[in-house]
């Protein structure tokens, strides 16, 4: 449980940093909302992102393992971008404001999120 909460926190912070760096190409929450509502939206998006990575991501990565090895890991970024787009789709079904402007912005966001998660995980652990 502690590991899940840590992963949720790290994912939420990494998503916030990615949204900050990508500007209008990735948004979490509505800009007109209060800070509390935006933090709540970030927490929900972080939770969905963590759950998607925990369940869907592990299965997809296991199935794609030979191709991940052949592409020297570049396929991992593509998978993470697709998981980010899946998170966008799931959160929109719940009415949470989260958007990424297409696959290539999701690809760039996946790189930023991966780097941020690595750094934050190293600091927390």
TrEMBL record:
Keywords: Membrane, Transmembrane, Transmembrane helix. InterPro entries: Phage_holin_4_2. It comes from the Bacteria. Pfam families: Phage_holin_4_2. The chain crosses the membrane at residues 39-56, 63-83, 103-124. PANTHER family: SLR0284 PROTEIN. This is Putative membrane protein. It comes from Aeromicrobium choanae.
